[in-house]
Write a structure and sequence with these properties.
single chain; 295 residues; mainly alpha; 14 helices; 76% helix
Length: 295
Amino acid sequence: ILFTAVVLGEYIITAERWNKALNFLIVAGVVTSVRCLLYTDLFSLLSYYNRDMFAKELLSAGLTYNAFTTPMALICIIAVYLVYKKSKKRYAIAYGVITLTLIISGSRKAIVVAILGLIFVSLLYKRNGSTLKKILIITGVVVAVYMSLMYIPVLYNAVGDIMQQMFDSLLGDNSSVTDPSLIGRAFFRKKAWEIFFDHPILGVGINNFSTVMEQINYSHTLYAHNNFLELLADGGIIGFCMYYWIYIKELLSSTLSYMHKSHTSPAVLVMSIFICLLIMEYGQITYYNISAQLI
C-alpha cells in the first residue's frame, strides 16, 4: 500500500493527472460492474435472492465480496463529484451502473454510502443550482429509492428486508432481526468492547481479535466487522489514535480548504470520502483493505 501510494503521489502532481487518475477509477468501476452484471445469473439471483450467490459470482471473477463493494461505493462518490465538476452525463451513467450493481449485491453499507455520497457532494458542491433545489431533488431521489426497496417485491427480497433489519438493529430493536449476519455482528461488537476494557492501552495485538474468537471456539474467527472496535480491541487506545489521526487531519485540512477556497475544489471529494468511510467502517474492516486504502 505504501509503495503504491508513493508512486501515485509522484504521478498525481498536476490537475490534469489528478483528473486522469479519477477517470481511471471510474472506468475501472464501470468495467468491473458490467463484468459482474454480464456474468451473473440475474434471473436466478432476483427470483430467489441470496447474497452468497452473488459472492460466488464475484469469486469466479477473482474478487471477494468486501473487496468489490467497498471500492465500488467510494467510486460512486467520485462519479458524483465529477458530475458536478465536469457537467457530463457519462459520470451520472457510471454512478447509475455501479449503484445498480451494489443494489444487486445486497451490501447494506455500500448502498448507504453510495446514497450518502450523492447527498454530501451535492450539498457541498455549490456551483450548480441553489441549495434548496438540491435538497428537494435529493429528497425525491432518496424517497424514490426507499419506496422501491420497500414496496417492489423483488427489490424488497434482495435489499429492502435486510436494510430494514439493519436500521432496526442500529436503533436497538433486535426483536425483528433474523439475519444471521446482523445477529453475529452484535455479538462481535459486544466481545470487542470486552476485549478493549480488559486491554485498554495496547489491546491484544493487531489481528488478534480472531485469536480470541478461536479461544472461545466461536464459529466465525476472522474479524469484528467493525473497524473502530477491531482497532480498539487489537491496538487499544494508542493503536486507535495512531490510525484515525490521518482521518482527523484530512477532514480538518479539507474543511479549512473548503471554507477559504473555491467550493469546486477537491476538498469536497476528500470530505465526502472520509465521512463516508467513517460511516462504512462501523460495519466492516478497512484498515487492511488495500483497494479502500489506495482510494
